[in-house]
Amino acid sequence: MTSLFSLSLLLSVALLSLSFLTTTISASQFTFHEATIESIHLAFAQSRLTSRQLVDFYLDQIQTLNPSLRCVLEVNPDALDQADEADRLRAAAAGGNGALGDLHGIPVLLKDSIGTDDKMNTSAGSYALLGARVARDAFVVERLRSAGAVILGKASMSEWYSLRSWEMPRGWCARGGQGLNPYMKSGNPCGSSSGSAIAVAANMVTVSLGTETDSSIICPADYNSVVGFKPTVGLTSRAGVILVSPRQDSIGPISRTVSDAVHVLDAIVGFDPRDEATGEAAEFIPMGGFKQFLREDGLNGKRLGIVRHPFSDFKGSTAASIFDQHLATFRNNGATLVDNLEIKNIDIILNPFQSGEMALLRAQFKHNLNEYLGGLSNSPVKSLAEVIAFNSDNPDLESMEEYNQDGLIAAEKTNILDEEVVKAEHMMKKLSEEGFEKLMKENKLDAMVTLGANAATIPAFGGYPALTVPAGYDDNGMPFGICFGGLKGSEAKLIEIAYSFEQATRMRKPPLSFSTEFHYQYYQ
User: Fold this and answer.
1) Are strands 303-306 and 447-451 parallel, antiparallel or unpaired?
2) Mean of the per-residue pLDDT values of the chain
3) Domain named Amidase: which ranges (predicted)?
4) Is 111 a catalytic site residue?
């Protein structure tokens, strides 16, 4: 199905990428596919690549792949101008007129819930916010612009973070339709940061930003064979981002390598007076940044807790076998494994209705969304109640009636002061303390290690960091990763562990080819 949005997106991309044919660089000089931040900067330094050429390449990729993958909602009409400015500043710096940052000239795609004070929308995938204007860039966007990054566009997402409806498939939103996994058409792209992960996996952008309340970075990164890094809550500011839960929400990078994720993380962390959580978390930011922990020997001396049940149960025998091979890699690289650990009340923790998480998130979402909408100008809606009414009044919009909005309606009936909500928060805190925290402390672990993405809920409960790295592909070609979780402020250890594992295994295999029948292949 083709919408007015799809046609306008294709037209805008076509207009922006007219210069692509005259700016390509031969494969012998620079490889666009799977390009890393470091390889891009090397090509910049050797005058074999410009930021404009790089942006042109990604615009061409979007024009070619997005009609099927549906992972980009908007291309930034100023992207090429930003690339040209980056090239101009690089030329000036080469003349001794200043140093440039690690993200200078690097294209970044933003999840559609991260506010930008420019010509693009920030809509959480919903038609209800088209045309609304934010008062200023989100803090993380300010940091990206200061670092010289090119804001390439807005990525699709599960509409309203999948809170629109419990029955809504992950990776779907009214504006973009159903996002697709680039490795297999029937594969779940997961969410809610689906577009951010799909675009990186399919080489439609260098890196992207996602947001996570519970699994929303880790799961799409895992399912699309990319790296996802969800930092400790407060390490990155949520100011200017459509918020679900102040106790759980975190902004983090999605990339093809651990190194790229760390480069982005270094650029976006920092204290922000508009987000009080950043005050406490600022103490976790090391002098010299996080890049110093990209160590190939990072597994040496680490103590890793292996939690198999129930996470290995979700995967087939091929994934479980590969997981065991990776455990041998950990040992061979100097790590001590504490195997077959179990988390108390794990079945309750993983059930959002039993744990109280759903009740808490719905109430916090309503409260925070109403506050966010009240700060917008030119917004068609000013409250969650008006969002619900907008959806009911506009069933003719593409796919609007395809899925109901029972989740939004349930959220509208809540109040953050309700006894059920207060009890839910206390219960979640207790579950976290008696489960994950006790596991980590009693076993003196540097990280918890699990197969796949389902364990992301565990660190999410306490606002703890998690990092997933591609770990293999099942018999059908569906990707899976290994998730590393740690206590608050343990980013340095997680980076050392994940980077060392990545360098020892190099398991990511990019989608190889695309056809109109949507048959992706992957390297064997």
Assistant:
1) parallel
2) 91
3) 54-450
4) yes
What's the CATH number for 4-309+316-352+434-505?
3.90.1300.10
Distance between start and end Cα atoms, the chain: 33
Instruction: Answer whether 197's CB lies under 8 Å from 226's CB.
Output: yes
The torsion angles phi and psi of 355, rounded to 5 degrees, stand at -75, -15
Q: Which residues pair with 229 in a beta bridge?
A: 467
Q: How far apart are CA 481 and CA 313, in angstroms?
A: 14
Q: Rounded to 10 degrees, what is the CA torsion of 495, 182, 72, 464?
A: -30
Q: What is the mean pLDDT of residues 38-53?
A: 96
Cα–Cα distance, 261 to 294 (Å, whole number): 11
Torsion of CA 435, 436, 442, 446, to 10 degrees: 170
pLDDT at 97: 59
Catalytic residue among 111, 154, 366, 493: 111
- How many whole angstroms separate alpha carbon 141 and alpha carbon 217? 18
Tokens describing residue 46: 């050797």
Report whether 175 contacts 5 (CB < 8 A).
yes
What are the CA-CA distances from residue 231 to residues 264, 267, 269, 299, 383 (Å)? 12, 13, 9, 20, 29
DSSP 26-48: -TTT---TT--HHHHHHHHHTTS
Domain ranges (residues) in the chain: 4-309+316-352+434-505
- The two structure tokens encoding residue 203: 């080489």
Question: Side chain identity at 135, as an amino acid letter?
Answer: A
pLDDT tens readout for residues 311-342: 987 777 899 999 999 999 999 999 999 999 99
Query: Residue 151, Cβ neighbours under 10 Å: how many?
Result: 22
Cα angle value 275/75/385 (rounded, 5°): 50
Q: Which residues pair with 111 in a beta bridge?
A: 155
State both tokens at 356: 């109280």
493 catalytic? Reply is: no
Give the CA-trace dihedral at 397, 398, 401, 402, to 10 degrees.
Answer: -170
Q: Is 315 a catalytic residue?
A: no
| Set 51, 113, 192, 259: catalytic member | 192
| Residue that is written with structure tokens 């010289």 in the block | 148
3-state secondary structure 243-261: CCCCCCCEEEEEECCHHHH
The reported pLDDT for the residue numbered 33 is: 94
Query: Helix 419-432 and helix 357-374: axis angle, to 10°?
Result: 120
> DSSP E strands: which ranges in 268-323?
303-306
Residue 150 gets which letter from DSSP? E
Beta bridge partner(s), residue 303? 336
- Which of 158, 193, 216, 355 is catalytic? The answer is 216
